[in-house]
Design brief:
about 120 residues, Arc Repressor Mutant, subunit A, three-stranded antiparallel sheet
Length: about 120
């Protein structure tokens, strides 16, 4: 899936994950530490990857006005265009790989299992 995403859109799966996380926020901007927690990435990994994305114009870094150590990451117009271009094909590939081979009962069972796991994870937090 990663190779197909890269070939079709020029985005790595990690780029895609970052852009999805940003587009899932109301103002397409999130504090760097919260983005790292959301993606479950270590700080150094996040910093290095964001530096590459900034260089490519996909995201921008903005200092936090009320916390001099904090920073926000925001999606750029180029990043928004990239995710909009990549999302339909990537969603179709995910559907093909994960769901097209399942019948309705299997999808229902998978949904129930994932729901139970997510509930337990929420309780653990």
């Amino acid at each position: 899936m990663s190779r197909e995403l890269q070939a079709a859109s020029g985005l790595s799966l990690q780029d895609y994950d970052v852009l999805v996380a940003l587009t899932d926020t109301p103002d397409a901007s999130v504090r760097m530490r919260d983005l790292g927690l959301n993606l479950q990435w270590e700080k150094s990994r996040l910093s290095k990857h964001l530096a590459r994305m900034i260089a490519r114009g996909l995201v921008a870094r903005r200092d936090c006005a009320d916390d001099r150590r904090g920073a926000f990451v925001e999606i750029t117009e180029e990043g928004l265009a990239a995710i909009r271009g990549a999302a339909p094909d990537h969603a179709a590939l995910v559907r093909e790989v994960f769901f097209d081979g399942l019948d309705r009962d299997q999808v229902r069972a998978l949904t129930a299992i994932c729901g139970t796991v997510l509930e337990r994870l929420d309780e653990a937090d």
